[in-house]
Amino acid sequence: MIYLDNAATTFPKPMSVRNAVVNSISNYGANPGRGGHDLAVRASEIIYKSRSKTADFFGEKDAENVIFTSGCTHSINIVLKGLLKPGDHVVVSDMEHNAVMRPLYALKKKKISYSVARVSDVSSDETLENFRNALQENTRLVVCTHVSNVWGTRLPVERITAMCHQYSIPVLIDAAQSAGVLGIDLDESNFDYICMPGHKGLYGPMGTGILITKHHDDLETLIEGGTGSNSALFEQPGTSPDKFESGTPNLSGIAGLGAGIDFVRSVSCEKIHAHEINLLAHLYDRLEKNKNIILYTPRPNVYNSGGVLSFNVKNHDSEEVAAVLNRRFSIFVRAGLHCSPLAHLHHSTEETGAVRIAPSYFNTISEMNVLAASLKKI
Ligand code: PMP
């Protein structure tokens, strides 16, 4: 079996992550923050440790600015629905996932509009100008994915953020494909809102996500409820993270996420990124020699790419290719539109979709060779 669908979720998870999940369920599975007894205190400590590790890993000084969610979609919804008001305008890149586009589409009913800025395939200056030109008087937020989940394209998010800040416009970065792969230092980059899953490049369990922001006062809540704090008040606590974390938290997920961050730290983002790019560049060279393969992007490299590469086999639907890889060769990849129809419009693959290869730190060059050889047989 060869698993190459790590852009959807990483598999396998490191042994330390599996152990952390089992340990939490087996040894201290009480409800954190909901009781003064020893087991509840121990559970709270684990959540606190994971929160501190996350803050430290991303260069965020205040651990209370780290909000645990159920995934990147949840984090993005908290910002879009918590921040935007009728009459507001949003600028998004043309690489955005439906985790951004569907909430924005739904918000149209509340008189919130958006414009799309095209990402240039050749020049980050051009991308920057496209974003600048899309800004309006009423632009309240710019949303930009860090790495396209379809094409692996790396967007100039630091430059886009600096430009938006000249106009006092906050920026939401969707780090679904970059967290744990590209080093992110919030102290330097100043992203206003960064949303990410815990279950992809951070190697945590599914059902975990993170939002990091200093600007939580600007956000209305999506849900309200018990937080274990200020219980005498009907009013939702106004301070982060309690404001956004109502209900029983995902203790085993958050324990596993902490272990995932430890794992990434022990290897380093630089090494993980270099490994993934090395695999994809090797695959690219093999696919380039195959006359039946259509490649859409330049050869992956550490400066312009994350760990994702998509292609098509001439005269074959992408879903068909993925099904054959699955059935005949036990190679697991994702085909179709990857929940990102906008990104497919970018390379005119909205009808065929594309076959996506997304390795993790655990994949190998020999697996790339097996994939290339299998594609030759199709
Ligand atoms: N944004 C991007 C770019 C993604 O690739 C994904 C996951 N495919 C998401 C958002 C949504 O992440 P999650 O599944 O954790 O909600």
Order of helices and strands: EHHEHEHEHEHEHEEHHEEHEHEH
Please compute the radius of gyration using only Cα atoms: 21 Å
The secondary structure category is alpha/beta
Work out the count of structural domains.
2
Under CATH at level 1, the class of the largest domain stands as Alpha Beta
CATH architecture of the largest domain: 3-Layer(aba) Sandwich
- Would you report the number of β strands? 12
Largest β sheet strand count, sense and barrel closure: 7 strands, mixed
Strand content: 5-15%
What is the strand arrangement across the widest sheet?
A: 2-8-7-6-5-3-4
List the total number of helices.
12
Give the helix proportion (percent range): 25-40%
CATH homologous group name of the largest domain: Type I PLP-dependent aspartate aminotransferase-like (Major domain)
Low-confidence stretches: none
What this model shows, in words?
The chain has helices at 15-27, 38-57, 72-83, 98-107, 124-134, 157-166, 186-189, 251-267, 269-288, 318-329, 341-346, 365-377; strands spanning 2-3, 66-69, 89-93, 113-117, 139-145, 171-174, 193-197, 209-213, 293-295, 309-313, 331-332, 355-357. The chain is of the alpha/beta class and 378 residues long. It has two domains: 15-266, Aspartate Aminotransferase, domain 2 (3-Layer(aba) Sandwich); 268-377, Alpha-Beta Complex (Aspartate Aminotransferase, domain 1), CATH 3.90.1150.10. The strands form three sheets. A seven-stranded mixed β-sheet has the order 2-8-7-6-5-3-4, sandwiched between helices. Strands 9-10-12 form a three-stranded antiparallel β-sheet. It has a two-stranded parallel sheet with strand order 1-11. The chain is globular, with a radius of gyration of 21 Å. The structure holds 4'-deoxy-4'-aminopyridoxal-5'-phosphate. Residues 7-8, 71-73, 97, 99, 145, 149, 174, 176-177, 197, 209, 339 line the site of 4'-deoxy-4'-aminopyridoxal-5'-phosphate.
